[in-house]
Amino acid sequence: xxxxxxxxxxxxxxxxxxxxxxxxxxxxxxxxxxxxxxxxxxxxxxxxxxxxxxxxxxxxxxxxxxxxxxxxxxxxxxxxxxxxxxxxxxxxxxxxxxxxxxxxxxxxxxxxxxxxxxxxxxxxxxxxxxxxxxxxxxxxxxxxxxxxxxxxxxxxxxxxxxxxxxxxxxxxxxxxxxxxxxxxxxxxxxxxxxxxxxxxxxxxxxxxxxxxxxxxxxxxxxx
Length: 223
Description:
Number of helices: 6
CATH class of the largest domain: Alpha Beta
Order of helices and strands: EEHEEEEEHEHEHEEHEH
Helix content: 25-40%
């Protein structure tokens, strides 16, 4: 099976696509891909076949050998999360991308310690994780905003909030939005607000999990 690499766009048959610096480094230096090697390019949920034709000056150039085609996905997975501290948040971005999150929606929860946003860095982490796990698209990542603002959106019908007090276990489902708290968990008022907007509480087991562990456990069970 050909390796899949992130492209800035997908072209028509015969087009030459120059990959960005990070992806070129991955293709040429990390993977040591020789010229003439068949590869696959992905962008925005589509992929196409190609051949690496050049690597001069550290820029990987791929000639497109097929028309773009849609890549099936596992459905919508929106992660609505109280912004945790930087190390946990960056692990969540990486592992959430690997586990199929399609949209990261952070908010400053009552117990959040981290403030502000670094959207450019966050997007780069997601892009690198998508490249590493060879998924066909990169999840959207939004700037933090109040929980009430997120809840006012037209969210997926399946709305789940992880709570250590819940008794119903989390299991596989289709499109879903998953609400997880930061360090210290969600405040009772935040859980109540989510329930008012159609969320129901689910359990991840009898132990209290760290924010990043809870995200991984929940996404694995959803799948």
